[in-house]
Write a structure and sequence with these properties.
The chain is an alpha+beta fold. The chain contains 6 helices and 16 strands. It has an 8-stranded mixed beta sheet with strand order 1-2-3-14-6-16-5-4, with helices on one face. A 3-stranded antiparallel beta sheet has the order 13-7-15.
């Protein structure tokens, strides 16, 4: 196994590994690399849905999406199909977010496997929320240290009803009340503090007026999404991309049209209650 630096902000490429057949020692090494670098990228992988689930379980138990927002692979409800095709465009994800942050226990990791990619298009951007925290002044850290932000799945409901796509229409009764999570969290298995808010699911700051809370959130987003804090992944068929959902945000660049097929399989590994 070899590793290559892919960006100054976060992430490494892991080479000479077949994810269909990894030893216990390799599994331990990959977990160590994941905890250190936040993003792992593998090229030229050929994973069946069962194999993708098995690999994803390295990072936590793999469960179906709580809102079943997209179609899943037949017989494998844990594997979401993210697909764009003529007559049925994929639901947009072109906004900074952390997957399912509105859950009581948001996912620890997301694992994407690319099957069809429009050449030179459909990149995924990720930003480092640990570095974003480290770049805050001591004064700002003190302000946000004890604050909690409110995360809601309402944005997923709104997307399902307003966009003509493969997103499953969601009934309002499926949306649970907002969850309050610390703005600064220290994920299990790491010794790093990270900012844990995102402009898609975070709707405010607990116990603060809307204007005051939004001022704090917008400044955190601005710091987190500086160009030097971003890795932009250019997809190739067979890529597997793993990211720490607790210490990053991501953004699916939508620079392709309905007639440009794009297909990926996604698994998410369960996490812990943020503290």
């Amino acid at each position: 196994m070899k590793i290559k630096c892919i960006n100054g902000a976060l992430g490494i490429e892991v080479c000479d590994v077949d994810l269909n057949n990894i030893s216990n020692q390799t599994s331990e090494d990959l977990l160590d690399l994941y905890n250190k670098h936040l993003v792992l990228m593998f090229r030229d992988q050929n994973l069946s849905p069962a194999a993708q689930i098995a690999f994803s379980e390295l990072f936590g138990q793999v469960n179906p999406h709580p809102l079943r927002t997209r179609p899943s692979v037949d017989g494998f409800p844990q594997v979401l199909i993210l697909e764009n095709q003529p007559g049925r465009p994929g639901a947009p994800n072109d906004y900074w977010h952390s997957d399912i942050s509105h859950a009581k226990k948001p996912p620890s990791a997301t694992v994407l496997h690319s099957l069809t990619i429009p050449e030179g298009r459909g990149d995924t951007m990720l930003c480092n929320m640990v570095r974003a925290y480290e770049n805050l002044s001591t004064y700002v850290r003190e302000i946000i240290q004890e604050l909690k932000a409110l995360h809601s799945g309402m944005a997923t409901l709104e997307r399902s009803v307003r966009s003509a796509s493969d997103a499953r229409p969601i009934d309002p009764s499926e949306i649970k009340p907002p969850q309050a999570h610390p703005i600064v969290r220290k994920p299990k298995g790491t010794n790093q503090s990270a900012i844990y808010v995102n402009p898609h699911f975070t709707i405010g700051v607990e116990h603060l007026e809307v204007e005051e809370g939004n001022w704090i959130l917008n400044n955190l987003y601005k710091i987190a999404t500086q160009p030097e804090n971003i890795y932009r992944h250019q997809w190739c068929v067979g890529d597997v991309l793993v990211w720490d959902n607790r210490r990053t945000m991501h953004y699916a660049v939508r620079d392709y049209t309905e007639d440009m097929p794009r297909k990926l399989h996604r698994c998410t590994a369960s996490g812990e209650i943020p503290i």
